[in-house]
Amino acid sequence: AMRDANRSALNRVELGMSKSQVIAVMGEKAASGMNGTVENPYRREMMKGLDGGTYEILYYYTEQIGEKPVETGLTPIVLNNGKVTGIGWGYLDSLSGNSTTTIRRR
Predict the structure, then answer these.
(1) For FRET with 63, which of 34, 73, 77, 85 sits at 20 to 30 Å CA-CA?
(2) How many CA within 13 A on the CB side of residue 9?
C-alpha cells in the first residue's frame, strides 16, 4: 500500500536533501482507495515560521488510523530554501508555534 511504501521511503529522507531528491525518494505515484485518489505528496503548503522564514511543507500519507480521514495519517517533510530542515509534527509545531499548523496533531 502507498502508506507502507511512504513509511519505508521516509527513512531514506535526510536533512539537507533538495526538494527534487525528496520527491525522487518518496515517489509521485497516486493511489486510489476508499477515500478516492490520494496524491503523493498528499498536499503541499507554504508556511511562515516563527523565525520569519518561509517554509514549504510536503505532507505524505504514512498511516491509516482506523476509519479516520487520510489527513490524520500524514507526516510532514519541511523544507526551507529548497532543502529539508526537518521531518515530523514535533518539528513543524516548533516552527509554527502550533498556531499556523492547519492539520492538528493526532
Answers:
(1) 85
(2) 22
Give per-residue pLDDT as tens, 4-47: 999 999 999 999 999 999 999 999 988 887 767 889 999 999 99
Cell of 48: 511562515
- In angstroms, the CA 53 to CA 91 distance is 14
And the C-alpha cell for 13?
A: 529522507
Q: Are 35 and 69 in contact (CB under 8 A)?
A: yes
CA 71 to chain centre: 10
For residue 18, report the phi and psi dihedrals to the nearest 5 degrees: -80, 165
C-alpha cell at position 8 = 519505508
This prediction's pTM:
0.86
Check the CA dihedral 33-2-22-87 and report its sign. Answer: positive
DSSP H helices in the chain: 2-10, 19-26, 89-96
Q: Using the structure block, give the residue that is written with the C-alpha cell 525528496.
A: 22
